[in-house]
Amino acid sequence: MSYFKNVQPIQFEGKDSTNPLAFKHYNPREVVAGKTMEEHLRFAVAYWHTFTANGTDPFGAGTFVRDWDRYQGMDLAKARVEANFEFVEKLGVPYFCFHDRDIAPEGDTLQETNANLDAIVGMMKDYMKTSKVKLLWNTANMFTNPRFVHGAGTACNADVYAYAAAQVKKGLEVGKELGAENYVFWGGREGYETLLNTDMKLELDNLAHLYRMAIDYAQEIGFDAQFLIEPKPKEPTKHQYDTDAATTIAFLQTYGLKDHFKLNLEANHATLAGHTFEHELRVARINGVLGSLDANQGDLLLGWDTDEFPTDLYSATLTMYEVLQNGGLGRGGVNFDAKVRRGSFEAEDLFHAHIAGMDTFAKGLKTAAKLIEDRVFEDAIDSRYASFTEGIGLEVVSGKATLRSLEAYALHNHPIRNVSGRQEVLRATLNRYLLSE
Ligand code: XLS
Ligand code: CA
Ligand code: CA
Fold this sequence. Notes:
It is built from 16 helices and 14 strands. It is an alpha/beta fold and about 425 residues long. The protein binds D-xylose and calcium ion (CA) (2 copies). One calcium ion (CA) binds near residues 230 and 337.
């Protein structure tokens, strides 16, 4: 059964192509800064947006026209697996990602739910014997079911906490079974609606216990995936504990967990936190925890998580600049946690959207590599901070300075001379690089 019979495997046709079903910049085999584009970008398709969602919004029913929707229950779940492998192979990306509840329906009991999951995981495993498609990460959906109304790992109810722990245990087993390279924790309900009914300390302690148990269990079963925490400040919960990269790093340090986790950063979550995506990547990078990316973009005119496909070349360039400066994403990748708009309801739109995102990131990668090769920002930054490479500045940097020695210096250093930050020149230069080629 083919779900995308009108689409042939997507090919690279070059920047002058006008074919909406071809890549203009993403050439998997092209070498940039010492690695192929495929190795740098490690693209993944998000199962939930691509195969599970139907275009429902709070004001209206689903609009998506999908061939697999003629099925129901486990038959539907199986049809989606077929569609997934066909789509990911035709798109030519190496990975996909899912939540447990995206791939199999819940049953009446946890036993039944796990049995459904096992059946679908078995089917995926069979596909993966012959397909080149791999699992970048899996995760547990502990936010949709009403039982998680007050949270999962931060629930006020120990029975819910135990259920969440059972779900994480199963998620780790599934990840091992399918050879997942990472395992993600995103806490959509891990936060609070009001402090008036919230024991914040207990909730955070319990969340840390859950993470510790997950580390121990993964070790016990020999699941060596990279653990990732995905920050988001709000939505669905009013305040979410993993607010942004800096807050999540502080949490990991407080609980002695930093060596076991990296961050999965999402562009739209950065926007919701009042940051640029590159800010979040920079914070993670300088703290050694830049793990993986959820590539999408928000709408700055809307205050919610719109998860649009990324087409902003400027942002993609600065994102890939951080990734290159990080020495790559390691076991992480670039997952399109993005959905086609409700009005883009035809199955072919799924290809158009991913191609647009992949080309945007490919162009961003090429531009960032050129900027780094030419040391555009590095030279500007080096000269801006040059006063810390000698004299009194070097004493500060090497930790030798004291308030006394700095005062002695300041008393006789008059007048102080500052130099322009030259922001506009740098932005114009960035535009010049983006527009070249
Ligand atoms: C929701 C999140 C979610 C995570 C995985 O906003 O982006 O989809 O990526 O649970
Ligand atoms: Ca995400
Ligand atoms: Ca999102």
